[in-house]
């Protein structure tokens, strides 16, 4: 595929009534001035007749590419009776999902202590500076237990923000809060 890249002629056709001998000389002067300013040889991507190959045009014209498609996450089927609606009901009826047995959810917890809680039966995680017991939520997590367990025993804030930045985790996990991360001074 070739395209003609030469500009249209600015002089009227020879049969035009506007063309006379005086304009012919001024036109030829302008043409010689333009010729002296132009390159003596056409660029490598242009043919002698002023047309360019499709490859040269594709390189010269910036291409707008669509954004990459997000990697689809595998859907994990939840067990019967473990939907988000059931979890929300559980939040209203169960007083101690965190397993605190009357202790305050405001106590300071070190990262060293969080690291000790990384089994399905006893899983803690840090999210935005708060420590949560995620064990009661494992079977309710829409992404499955394997994904949730990636945050067990560690700070999962970056992982959470990658997949659920818009989710109000403080509301969903408020009854599972065991304390606040004790960050040592730097």
UniProtKB/TrEMBL annotation:
GO terms for molecular function: cytochrome-b5 reductase activity, acting on NAD(P)H; heme binding; metal ion binding. The keyword Metal-binding applies. It comes from Ceratodon purpureus (Fire moss). Belongs to the cytochrome b5 family. GO terms for cellular component: cytoplasm. Pfam families: Cyt-b5 (PF00173). Residues 22-43 have a biased composition (Low complexity). It comes from the Eukaryota. Residues 106-182 form the Cytochrome b5 heme-binding domain. This is Cytochrome b5 heme-binding domain-containing protein. Residues 1-48 are annotated as: Disordered. Keywords: Heme, Iron, Metal-binding. The keyword Ubl conjugation does not apply.
């Amino acid at each position: 595929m070739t395209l003609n890249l030469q500009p249209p002629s600015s002089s009227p056709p020879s049969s035009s009534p506007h063309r006379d001998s005086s304009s012919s000389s001024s036109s030829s002067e302008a043409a010689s001035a333009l010729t002296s300013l132009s390159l003596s040889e056409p660029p490598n991507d242009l043919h002698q007749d002023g047309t360019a190959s499709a490859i040269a045009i594709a390189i010269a014209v910036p291409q707008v590419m669509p954004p990459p498609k997000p990697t689809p996450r595998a859907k994990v089927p939840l067990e019967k009776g473990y939907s988000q609606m059931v979890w929300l009901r559980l939040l209203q009826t169960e007083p101690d999902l965190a397993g605190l047995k009357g202790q305050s959810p405001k106590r300071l917890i070190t990262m060293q202590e969080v690291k000790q809680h990384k089994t399905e039966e006893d899983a803690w995680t840090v999210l935005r500076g708060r420590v949560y017991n995620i064990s009661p939520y494992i079977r309710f997590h829409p992404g499955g237990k394997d994904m949730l367990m990636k945050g067990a025993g560690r700070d999962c804030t970056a992982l959470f923000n990658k997949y659920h930045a818009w989710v109000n985790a403080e509301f969903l996990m408020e009854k599972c809060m065991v304390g606040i991360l004790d960050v040592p001074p730097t």
